[in-house]
Design goal:
With about 425 residues, the protein is of the alpha/beta class. It folds into two domains: about 210 residues, no CATH class; about 200 residues, no CATH class. Helix content is about 35%, strand content about 25%. The protein is built from six helices and 22 strands. The strands form two sheets. Strands 1, 4, 6, 8, 10, 12, 13, 16, 17, 20, 21 and 22 form a twelve-stranded parallel β-sheet that branches. Helix 1 packs across helix 2, helix 2 packs parallel to helix 4 and helix 3 runs parallel beside helix 5. The longest helix has about 55 residues. The radius of gyration is 34 Å and the shape is flat. It starts with 20 loop residues before the first helix and ends in a 10-residue tail after the last strand.
């Protein structure tokens, strides 16, 4: 495998644009004269001078004052020239230092990418850590983003699945030859090596997103493109802040391990789990805060494993589960939906095998939309849920009423809770 990407730096298209010395001096002198004139006439106005006395003779004191004034003007002009020259030298030095830093970064980048294409697992791991270090030391944000893009691209590369254990005897009843055993073991070793490198990248991404924003090693605000990535190991986003940039898990497969977004803050930017598949392991949003930005689970499939939103707070922004399918595993929504939240389950399907729990959820504000959802199987629980101000819609749904919903809503049904007509309790 060869990854050959050259980092695109703002230095590639940003030239050092400085005025010529003559023009810079002219503008500087003009600005100095205007400022000096403005100060002079301002003082004259403030001190209320009506006129200036004139004298027919040029005495020695006046002549001496004029000489001092002349020397002062010359000295001021020299200071202005020195200031302009120093400014230009400083700018040229800064541009040179940036070019040198970019050149060194590019060299190190090329070496790190070459390591990613090595056949040796140890060398590839070294390339991964080198790229992560380069992202930390990048002289500008575009170079940092390039390093992150390459790491994400490595995760998106196709890979052979785990070959499993070689059966003995084989289906034809014979015992595998030594050559076949060696070939099978080689496949397992390659799979494990590639998996180790992928898990290392996932761990490094999580580590950097948990570093407070604005610090040296923080990647908060950068873009992550994990489209179609298979996540079968641990990934720690505990306490991460998503306040900018775009994070894509579109079509990603969560099939093992623990992906932890506990206590994470979604306060800006876009995080997308569109068409993602949750088929194993645990994805944890416990005590996460959704207070801005957009988080999308549109078309996601929950067919196994556990997904937890217990203690999460939805207070602003949009979280959309529209068209999602809940067909297996357990999904806990024991969350708080408060003012400003816009949470959509419109068109979602809750089918056989699903265990979706809104147990102890608090609907105290905002809008939660279950319109056109299908409760065709499985179990959807609303036991001990609290409805005290949120607009919750169940219009156009199909299937039986979810467990505990009517008891949680109470009688009479609040005007902000819109239930299907056949779900409503009979009039007394």
């Amino acid at each position: 495998m060869t990854l050959n990407r050259r980092p695109r730096s703002t230095a590639d298209h940003r030239e050092l644009r400085l005025w010529k010395v003559g023009r810079a001096l002219s503008v500087t002198f003009a600005a100095a004269v205007l400022v000096s004139g403005g100060v002079f006439y301002g003082l004259v106005y403030l001190l209320d001078f009506q006129e200036i006395d004139t004298t027919a003779k040029l005495d020695a004191k006046t002549l001496f004052d004029l000489v001092k004034l002349s020397f002062g003007v010359v000295a001021g002009a020299g200071a202005l020239v020195a200031l302009v020259v120093a400014y230009r030298r400083q700018r040229v030095d800064e541009a040179g230092a940036h070019r040198e830093a970019t050149r060194l970064h590019t060299e190190r980048f090329s070496q790190a990418v070459d390591k990613l294409g090595s056949d040796s697992q140890a060398v590839r791991l070294g390339g991964v850590h080198a790229l992560a270090g380069l992202a930390d030391d990048a002289p500008d944000d575009s170079l940092r983003q390039t390093c992150i893009d390459v790491l994400c691209a490595y995760l998106r590369l196709p890979f052979a699945p785990d070959p499993g254990d070689l059966p003995d005897p084989l289906p034809n009843g014979t015992s595998p030859s030594e050559e076949r055993r060696d070939a099978h073991q080689d496949k397992k070793d390659r799979y494990r090596a590639f998996r180790e490198v992928r898990h290392t990248i996932l761990r490094l991404i999580g580590d950097h997103y948990r570093v407070p924003g604005g610090t040296h090693r923080s990647w908060q605000g950068c873009n992550l493109d994990l489209t179609g990535v298979t996540i079968d190991g641990n990934m720690d986003f505990t306490g991460a802040v998503f306040s900018g940039g775009t994070v894509k898990f579109r079509g990603a497969s969560f099939s093992g391990g623990t992906v932890d977004f506990g206590h994470a803050s979604f306060s800006g930017g876009r995080v997308g789990f569109i068409d993602a598949s949750f088929s194993g392991g645990t994805v944890d949003f416990v005590c996460a805060s959704f207070s801005g930005g957009t988080v999308g689970f549109v078309g996601a499939t929950f067919s196994g494993g556990n997904v937890h939103f217990g203690g999460a707070t939805f207070s602003a922004g949009a979280v959309n589960f529209g068209g999602a399918t809940f067909s297996g595993g357990t999904v806990h929504f024991g969350a708080t939906f408060s003012a400003g939240a816009d949470v959509g389950f419109r068109g979602a399907t809750f089918s056989a095998g699903a265990d979706v729990r809104f147990v102890c959820a608090s609907f105290s504000g905002g809008r939660v939309d279950f319109g056109l959802a299908s409760f065709s199987g499985g179990t959807v629980h609303f036991d001990l849920a609290s409805f005290s101000g949120a607009d919750v819609h169940f219009e156009g749904t199909t299937g039986p009423v979810p467990v505990g919903l009517l008891a949680a809503v109470g009688t009479p049904v609040p005007s902000e809770i819109r239930l299907r007509a056949d779900w409503l309790p009979p009039d007394p």
